[in-house]
Amino acid sequence: MAGFWIRINPQGCVDGSVHEEYVGPLAEDAHKQFTPRVRDRRREATEGWRHELVGHDEWDQRAKPCLLGQCEHRKAAS
Ligand SMILES: [Zn+2]
Taking residues 16-21, what's their average pLDDT? Predict the structure, then answer.
């Protein structure tokens, strides 16, 4: 399955996505794409940032509204 890695902030809002084909199957490698420095990755992990592999349908449901700024999280934050 060619899916997408999505990057989720501690509030549960999707902050970015990258093709699985480009990154590979490991969440750690997906995290590296977004956050190159290991120290920053450790900090983000303790803050609750997550990286999940999703298929196309799930991407449409979960990631798209966030990336377009039309999700519940942003409404709640503003
Ligand atoms: Zn969101």
Answer: 96
